[in-house]
Amino acid sequence: MAERPDSRVGHGMAEPARIEACANQDCKAPFHSLGEGKLSVFAIHNPLLWGLPANVKQKALWLCGRCCQHMSVRLDPGLHQVRLIPKQVQPVPKQAQPRQAAKVA
Ligand SMILES: [Zn+2]
């Protein structure tokens, strides 16, 4: 009933960001949908330096489902480059840790 006609999704007009492929240059898996992988959107103040049109105020980066499991994206504001940050392996919560660490030689 109260469905808004200005839903910003789809139809290719004024996309806030264009995503073509996985941000991992070694992967470049084609982007299919927001339902898979991980989308990160960063606010940018100098789009031209990022190779974007001057009216673009954000940069969206997408990692495919495989890459997002072991890395995340960040922007380097000094170099205007996309950085891929390997994710730290989650430390096992202490209470779930098996007690084999007590074995000291
Ligand atoms: Zn990927």
What are the salient characteristics of this protein?
mainly beta, two-stranded antiparallel ribbon, two-stranded antiparallel sheet, 4 strands, binds zinc ion
Series of H and E elements: EEEE
> Structural class of the helix and strand makeup?
mainly beta
Estimate the global geometry from the Cα principal axes: elongated
Heteromolecules bound: zinc ion
Largest beta-sheet details: 2 strands, antiparallel
Terminal Cα separation, in Å?
A: 71 Å
Strand content: 15-25%
What's the tally of helices?
A: 0
Strand arrangement, largest sheet? 1-2
Helical residues, percent: under 10%
Low-confidence stretches: 7-15
Q: Which whole number gives the mean pLDDT? A: 81
Radius of gyration: 19 Å
Number of strands: 4
Task: Write the topology of this structure.
Elements (H helix, E strand, L loop, with lengths): L37 E6 L14 E6 L7 E6 L4 E6 L19
Antiparallel strand pairs: 1-2, 3-4
This protein binds zinc ion.
Describe this structure in words.
It is a single chain. With 105 residues, the chain is mainly beta. The protein has a domain at 16-87. It has no helices and 4 strands. The chain has strands at residues 38-43, 58-63, 71-76, 81-86. A two-stranded antiparallel sheet has the order 1-2. It has a two-stranded antiparallel sheet with strand order 3-4. A hairpin with a 4-residue loop joins strand 3 (71-76) and strand 4 (81-86). The chain is elongated and about 60 Å long. Residues 7-15 have low confidence and may be disordered. Residues 22, 24, 27, 29, 63-64, 66-67 line the site of zinc ion.
